[in-house]
């Protein structure tokens, strides 16, 4: 039985097990039908031309973790941003770990999707927002059908959430192969600010496949900063589907740091429903060996006077492969749109490759849209210059790579997070550079 | 300090240096002059360790050690410094961070701890004053958007920070106005001591009015064809290079 059949046939058992209201039940039933119809995407589809899921779909994944596993904080502390106070929503093999988490209902809700889906007091928010931003593509639908757990964050209006929120999904690999489908919902009220850091971390060499959906709603003048740390091990794959719906004058940013994992596909979608909206999508990808990272972005400019800024940097070594597919749609009404897109890449080895494709669909006539993609090598003359000053080859390379990524790194607003990412990059490059850029 | 014996070097199978002999002793200033394409910059790059050049014959002895197999950074750690004719722009790396990294990597190679931040700042302040460099300049990206004069001044600032035993100045005077030339030359002269040496590569005699050489060599067609004292530079300034070419070709 292949994975699709297995998933479809286990849907009924799943549906009977979980306690949910009828609204979500209907959404799920609809979603499994969509998935059954469409199946997993193949390379025949334009959006999947350069990313094949075949190698990761052949595993015999356990779809529902059979047992609950515990982790002690000292074992996993290094995966947390632990030098600042944060809210934490932590999952182990898809199950909530109250032990590692720090949630709140004090003026804001930072808690669990399972609670939000089952308790009447959240029903209105769920009916208004759940599955209202997500596309009805096959992978998002698959997640919707099985969605039962994840982070639920609801910030009412006029709240500045001082502490960042960390969402971490650990997998322990007690099963031979695990498939996880976390579902996050983030609703941010008028004038409210929130910062979220998300990470998926496998602690096993057994295969893990995560198909995640995150829906983010930014109300009028809200500020939402979302950071994704993708530094998983070589047997863990991630399909991240994120949908950001923005109202007027809101600011939303998603930074994606992709440093590890077997295969990563980021489907990142922004929808601007209002004027004077700012959307920022940035990423740094540094991979090697046979890793594959695919950024598939969409910014949909629907109304006038809005901006979007996309800046993705990629550094590829060994036989690693990258994809950047950035689509910007500017509707006829969206006059005075400013849309910028840049994708710059460095190939360190002859065997590494990147496919980059900007896609602009502009129906308005008074707009500023720019896009640029570059593919290059490390600048040899810069290397010699640095080495002639006593900076060894490895460090000189690292310095150039940091400099190359600096535009993205410098817009991270949480200093401790920026430091951590700098450290992850330095570790990855095998250097100890004693300063922050 | 530096002894170059019968050095032949080529790039992409094109032979450029065809048997250079040169000895530089501590405390000396040597000038290497010559027409375009004679191999001056190649000689500088080969001594500094640029990998594109292949040494096909001869050797380079620095402080008694054959350095031909050493990487550029290892030569730098031993005290070789090259002031670039065209300093490279490195966006995203500030002058200060670049210098900190260079100094601490050099210290690491010598088994020393990183320089304490306070000492580093003091050193930077001291040396930037010597080259009349504005503090704001130090936080800018290395060479990015610098004028020709700023780039060259920054090269000598780096030299002042690293205190090399042997400094090779490759066309440091090109692109400098007279004020910048004076500042740069003044910086070099202040750094001169009986223990270090300077090799000045230049087209024109102008810089040599400020940095006075003990020896002047004329490089032509990959060989040193004439050596003399500082008066040779004046002769070249007056008469150009044609008489040398004629002498060689005769």
UniProtKB/TrEMBL annotation, chain A:
Signal peptide span: none
Residues of the SUF system FeS cluster assembly SufBD core domain: 174-404
Residue span(s) of domain SUF system FeS cluster assembly SufBD N-terminal: 22-167
Pfam families (UniProt xref): SUFBD_core, SufBD_N
InterPro entries linked to this entry: Fe-S_cluster_assembly_SufBD, SUF_FeS_clus_asmbl_SufBD_core, SUF_FeS_clus_asmbl_SufBD_sf, SUF_FeS_clus_asmbl_SufD, SufBD_N
Taxonomy, superkingdom: Bacteria
GO BP field: iron-sulfur cluster assembly
Record family assignment: Belongs to the iron-sulfur cluster assembly SufBD family.
NCBIfam families tied to this protein: sufD
Protein name per the record: Fe-S cluster assembly protein SufD
Organism: Algibacter marinivivus
Taxon lineage: Bacteria, Pseudomonadati, Bacteroidota, Flavobacteriia, Flavobacteriales
From TrEMBL, chain B:
Superkingdom to which the source organism belongs: Bacteria
Keyword Transmembrane: no
Pfam families (UniProt xref): ABC_tran
Domain ABC transporter: 2-246
Database matches in InterPro entries: AAA+_ATPase, ABC_transporter-like_ATP-bd, FeS-cluster_ATPase_SufC, P-loop_NTPase
CDD domains to which the protein is assigned, alphabetical: ABC_FeS_Assembly (cd03217)
Example of a GO MF term: ATP binding
Keywords: ATP-binding, Nucleotide-binding
Family label: Belongs to the ABC transporter superfamily. Ycf16 family.
Name of the protein this chain belongs to: Fe-S cluster assembly ATPase SufC
Organism expressing this protein natively: Algibacter marinivivus
Gene this protein is translated from: sufC
